[in-house]
Amino acid sequence: MKALITRKLPVATDICMFELTAPGGEALPPFSAGAHIDVHVGGHVRQYSLCNSPSETGLYRIGVLRDPHSRGGSIAMHELPCGSTLEISTPKNHFPLTQDATHTIFLAGGIGITPILCMAEHLLHTGQSFELHYCTREPERTAFRERFAAADLKARARLYFDTAAPGERIDLPGVLGRPAAGTHVYVCGPAGFIEAVLATASKAGWSTANVHREYFGAAPQAAGPDDAFQVRLASSGNVVDVPPGVTVVEALRGCGIEVPVSCEQGVCGTCLTRVLSGEPDHRDQYLTDEERVANDQFLPCCSRARTPELVLDL
After folding, report:
1. Is residue 72 pLDDT above 80, yes or no?
2. Which of 20, 53, 213 shows the shortest CA–CA distance to 125?
3. How does pLDDT run across 213-239, given as a tens digit for each residue?
4. Which partner for 44 in 73, 82, 100, 301 could form a disulfide, CB atoms 3.0-4.6 Å apart?
């Protein structure tokens, strides 16, 4: 659908907030806390988390970090002026809040604050218990600082900066030292930050079912064998060769078979595909450890095969 940029505001060094509305002023499709939209910009499709409260029906608000090392999507976004029209998707949510949590611990690193802020706004609106820990390099790179200075959020949030004295930086073992069945942890940010949180939670004895994460970019993965293999389509029996250096998505596309993709880095889950037979070589950061062990689904944008053939539910 089409969306109009009605407001563009710098909210930190290299971070802009964009407010999007329907061109005709009508209400936009509703969304839930943790949702994102796909944005078509500069020939790319990029995912941006919605950071406003789901109770706001007239607009979508996203925060975009201008990354000079990106593939061009964020740079193109920052060059757009107010009044520009974008093509966007309806909201999708791969990072939803648990409905029955008695308390929620949010941990955000850098631009990872965007879905976390949306979640916090929702819990404020519904009167539920939470705490928020937000880590950035320095105050100037801390997005939405004025929102965190407001009394309602300031009472539940704490900000940490890499430039601060060691004693003022986040103490992950202290934050995550008391696992509880009704408490859920949500983390979003750079891969290294997420891995540190997950490792600390695991050591403290948190159940994996209570720890939720969303990556904004793929972390470096140990490269497995890049051998050729085949995929068989269950609906037709057609077999497609996947050569070394070619992804399953690319091989299928070469045969006229389109699989929906977005990030193409194994982060977003858009291309998630059922595996009916064979063993995938999982190289994504979307599936949980339990989901990988089941071997009944994989992300064809980046993952490969450990067996000569995968039979896909396509």
Report:
1. no
2. 53
3. 998 765 555 557 789 999 999 999 999
4. 73
CB 248 within 8 A of CB 242: yes
Report phi then psi at 89, rounded to 5: -90, 170
Beta bridge pairs of residue 9: 17
The CATH number of domain 229-312, selected from 3.10.20.30, 3.30.1340.30, 3.40.1390.10, 3.20.20.80: 3.10.20.30
Tens of pLDDT, residue by residue over 32-46, are 999 999 999 988 888
Identify whether the C-beta of residue 136 lies closer than 8 Å to the C-beta of residue 127.
no
Rounded to whole angstroms, the Cα distance separating 6 from 25 reads 11
Architecture of domain 103-215: 3-Layer(aba) Sandwich (3.40)
> Read out DSSP for 42-63?
TTEEEEEEB-S-TT--S-EEEE
